[in-house]
């Protein structure tokens, strides 16, 4: 697991090879603007973020698909840590459009070619 402020697409592709060949798991804290990449489970990143002061309501799990960089499918909203019934998020996705947009903006600021 690695906390990043900038990461290249080439680095993500190498990480994806270790996983399922096509994705890199990532967790974000949308309030603190923290991005963690390259973990086996989103819950590992969630635990790390909580140990470092993040609030659960600010953390979201996503998958990055390096081969789909530059498309709407680059960021996949799919993680068990996204189940947050107290926030009205009753799925593995991210139901709130504003939150999805914050995540996309954070990833756009972090990932470069």
Quick summary of this structure?
The chain has 113 residues and is an alpha+beta fold.
Written account of the structure:
The protein has 113 residues and is an alpha+beta fold. It has one domain (2-112). Helix content is 30%, strand content 22%. It has 3 helices and 7 strands, in the order E-E-H-E-E-H-E-E-H-E. A hairpin with a 4-residue loop joins strand 3 (24-29) and strand 4 (34-37). The chain is globular. The two termini are 21 Å apart. The mean pLDDT is 96.
Summarize this structure as a short list of keywords or feature phrases.
7 strands, alpha+beta, globular, 3 helices, 113 residues, five-stranded antiparallel β-sheet, two-stranded parallel sheet
Q: Helix tally? A: 3
Rg (CA only): 13 Å
Helix content: 25-40%
Shape: globular
Trace the largest sheet across and list its strands: 1-4-3-5-6
DSSP strand content:
15-25%
Give the total of beta strands.
7
Main sheet, how many strands, which sense, barrel? 5 strands, antiparallel
Poorly predicted spans:
none
How far the N terminus sits from the C terminus, by CA atoms, comes to 21 Å
Structural class by SSE content: alpha+beta
């Amino acid at each position: 697991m690695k906390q990043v402020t900038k990461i290249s697409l080439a680095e993500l592709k190498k990480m994806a090879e270790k996983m399922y060949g096509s994705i890199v798991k990532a967790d974000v804290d949308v309030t603190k603007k923290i991005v963690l990449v390259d973990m086996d489970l989103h819950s590992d990143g969630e635990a790390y973020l909580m140990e470092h002061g993040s609030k659960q309501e600010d953390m979201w799990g996503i998958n990055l698909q390096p081969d789909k960089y530059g498309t709407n499918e680059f960021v996949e909203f799919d993680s068990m840590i996204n189940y947050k019934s107290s926030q009205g998020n009753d799925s593995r996705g991210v139901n709130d459009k504003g939150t999805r947009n914050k995540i996309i903006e954070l990833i756009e600021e972090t990932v470069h070619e």
